[in-house]
Backbone:
């Protein structure tokens, strides 16, 4: 767990629960993080290899909303060590994530590699951007051969990340992965 993730997630209520349950000492830290985390090669490779992730946002009334996002492997692009982006494809037309981001730009992203039983959590500030006025961004996020039509882009500025334990992740395999395992 990075120091920044620790600083953002371990609220006073969380610290109290850790004390009550005997895990506080294991997570004790000396000093706050100097600023947002920067992605390393390990995080970048992991994100680029995924074909889906989960994105949680909060509504104006405080209720969390979790949304699955998918596309071909690598559809989430790493712009630099602190910025991710992906094309937002037409979906169910509810616009819950988009509306939530209008009132609170914070989001939690959850990437899972089921066969390897690995997961990465990221805390981000997210901004929706029209692709019409951003031809360079549209080209950077283009997915030749993928039939979905992007309606906008989401730019995500990473605040913190955490590689979480693999306990209780059931390995799951795509059809292509099963074929590859049998080869």
Residues:
């Amino acid at each position: 767990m990075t120091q920044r993730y620790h600083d953002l997630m371990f609220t006073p209520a969380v610290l109290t629960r850790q004390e009550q349950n005997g895990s506080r000492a294991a997570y004790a830290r000396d000093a706050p993080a100097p600023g947002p985390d920067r992605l390393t090669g390990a995080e970048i490779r992991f994100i680029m290899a995924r074909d889906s992730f989960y994105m949680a946002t909060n509504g104006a009334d405080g209720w969390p909303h979790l949304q699955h996002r998918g596309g071909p492997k690598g559809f989430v692009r790493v712009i630099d060590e602190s910025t991710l982006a992906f094309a937002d494809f037409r979906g169910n037309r509810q616009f819950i994530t988009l509306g939530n981001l209008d009132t609170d730009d914070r989001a939690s992203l959850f990437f899972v590699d089921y066969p390897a039983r690995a997961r990465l959590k990221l805390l981000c500030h997210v901004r929706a951007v029209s692709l019409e006025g951003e031809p360079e961004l549209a080209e950077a996020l283009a997915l030749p051969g993928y039939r979905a039509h992007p309606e906008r882009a989401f730019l995500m500025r990473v605040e913190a990340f955490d590689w979480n334990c693999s306990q209780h992740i059931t390995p799951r395999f795509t059809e292509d992965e099963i074929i590859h395992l049998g080869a």
About this structure: The two ends are 37 Å apart (CA to CA).
